[in-house]
Design a protein that fits this description.
This protein is mainly alpha-helical. It has 5 helices and no strands. The N and C termini lie far apart (about 30 Å).
Length: about 130
């Protein structure tokens, strides 16, 4: 049930080209585990790992945006907070929440705050067009 990993294209920007596949693979794995109704505790542990592992990527993204004075400044804490909120919701309502809802929420978070956000970055777009 891969979704994100199949959509990744190289950008020539090291932190994106290294970060996107790892984030996509983790999100896809969590979504597959949700779909297969794996134990909630295992899924929460994976979400904790994603929260921990995405912080360096988001820091690099924030530094890149500051360096290039991008219009869409990111706030790493806001993106992490949204992921933590999703984790808390899943922890509180996971047993009652349909897996499809949790999968949709996680994929929307990744698409909005990681993948689409990077594609729309004007500085990153300039690097891609030079290749």
């Amino acid at each position: 049930m891969t979704f994100l990993i199949d959509e990744i294209l190289p950008t020539g920007i090291p932190f994106i080209d290294e970060g996107h596949p790892l984030i996509a693979e983790t999100v896809d794995t969590i979504c597959e585990d949700l779909a297969c109704k794996k134990p909630l505790e295992d899924i929460l542990t994976q979400l904790d790992g994603l929260i921990e592992n995405i912080e360096p990527y988001l820091s690099a993204k924030g530094q890149c945006r500051s360096r290039h004075a991008c219009e869409a400044q990111i706030h790493v804490n806001d993106i992490i907070s949204r992921l933590r909120e999703l984790r808390e919701t899943l922890e509180s309502f996971g047993a009652a929440m349909p897996p499809s809802v949790a999968i949709l929420e996680l994929r929307q978070w990744a698409a909005l705050h990681v993948f689409r956000d990077d594609v729309s970055c004007k500085s990153c777009a300039k690097v891609r067009t030079k290749q």
